[in-house]
Amino acid sequence: MGIDKRKVVYQIYPKSFKDTTGNGIGDLRGIIEKLPYLKELGIDMVWLNPFYPSPQRDNGYDISDYTAVHPDFGSMADFEEMIAQGRKHHIDFMLDMVLNHCSTDHEWFQKALAGDQYYQDFFILRDEPTDWRSKFGGSAWEPFGDTGKYYLHLFDVSQADLNWRNPHVRAELFKVVNFWRDKGVKGFRFDVINLIGKDAVLTDCPIDDGKPAYTDRPITHDYLKLLNHASFGKDADFMTVGEMSSTTIDNCILYTAPDRDELTMAFNFHHLKVDYQAGQKWTQMAFDFAKLRDLFHTWGEGMSKGGGWNALFYNNHDQPRALNRFIDVQHYREEGAMMLAASIHLSRGTPYIYMGEEIGMLDPDYASMADYVDIESINAYDSLLKAGKTPEQAFAIIKAKSRDNARTPMQWDDSTNAGFSTGKPWLKVGRSYQEINVAREQAGPIFSFYQTLIKLRKNLPIIAQGDYHAALCDHAQVYAFERRLAGQKLLVLNNFFATEIRVTLPGTYSQGQVLLSNYEDVLIQKTITLRPYQTLAIWQY
Question: Annotated catalytic sites, by residue?
Answer without folding.
Answer: 191, 243
